[in-house]
Design brief:
Layout: H1 2-19, H2 26-53, H3 63-89, H4 106-134, E1 145-146, E2 153-154
Antiparallel strand pairs: 1-2
Helix pairs in contact: 1-2, 2-3, 2-4
């Protein structure tokens, strides 16, 4: 969870610098936008893996589990960051078609929007199965729950 919170801090800082009204050169803004996109993808990946850790296939908090989560998130961060930087700075020319109107970068769209949605969906499915099947608890998933001290319904 600490890796997720660290990723959230990186996302917030990059979002402030890439979207905010700070007077930055366009190349610096492009770099922060690429880091922002990579951090979103890696952070949702960490959240999804955090949902899988609840099943205790590998003991959580051990060096093995932390290195697997951190290593895979770092690989995803570097890969997504490279694609975003290559798209923005046209290093290889592979993504140049997205630099011209109508500026459609399907790779960035997939890594920035679709992949995190898939990761979030898998996380919610993993957590729901964990809560319902393994813990046999339904209260966290209900919309309304009765208050124990007053007997009233809270919605």
């Amino acid at each position: 969870m600490q890796l997720f919170l660290f990723g959230y801090i990186v996302i917030d800082i990059c979002e402030i610098l890439s979207i905010g009204g700070f007077p930055l050169r366009s190349s610096v803004r492009t770099a922060f936008s690429a880091i922002h996109i990579a951090a979103i993808t890696a952070t949702t990946w960490v959240l999804m893996l955090n949902g899988a850790v609840g099943y205790q296939a590998i003991d959580d908090g051990t060096l093995l589990s932390m290195s697997l989560i951190f290593g895979s998130a770092l690989a995803l961060f570097i890969g997504t960051g490279y694609i975003a930087l290559d798209t923005g700075f046209s290093w290889t020319g592979y993504f140049d078609q997205s630099l011209y109107a109508p500026n459609r970068s399907y790779s960035i769209y997939t890594l920035y929007l679709l992949l995190p949605i898939v990761f979030l969906f898998i996380y919610f499915v993993l957590e729901s199965v964990l809560v319902i099947k393994i813990l046999r608890e339904t209260r966290p998933l209900r919309k309304c729950d009765s208050l124990p001290d007053r007997g009233k319904r809270a919605c």
